[in-house]
């Protein structure tokens, strides 16, 4: 049975970021276009029989997961497949702040700081080293191998999925993923 990878819809950061300049939009939410992209993805996955959804704790992924799957399949939050910390949009928020914004989801299992912890630049961004990121991707791949729930949907992020499948998915793209 398949696993479906779904990149979040367009975020406010995606909409304005250009030429590697950090737009300083922390934990960026979806734009109107991002919400529409998630609505289109909902139509695509409607008949897939998804039994479980795992979303990253970054706001744009949570909003995408809720827009596609709320009321259709159980949604769990896991930190293992959050985006590589490169920009302000990848800086997470404490589980209490997330629980306040998304009371229908459980965040109690998340550590206080679930995103990369390291030396921060002047904007409070602790760039995640590539090797640390790649190890995290491998650990998440192992979690998927051990999971028996199928069909399963993973709502996550571009660089993370690119590391897994070798290409950058479009916003709200649905990709059928077979474990190698």
From TrEMBL:
Pfam family, one: His_Phos_1
SMART domains (alphabetical): PGAM
InterPro entries: His_Pase_superF_clade-1, His_PPase_superfam, PG/BPGM_mutase_AS, PGM_Phosphatase
CDD domains: HP_PGM_like (cd07067)
Coiled coil location: none
Listed name of the protein: Histidine phosphatase family protein
Organism annotation: Kiloniella laminariae
Lineage, highest ranks first: Bacteria, Pseudomonadati, Pseudomonadota, Alphaproteobacteria, Rhodospirillales
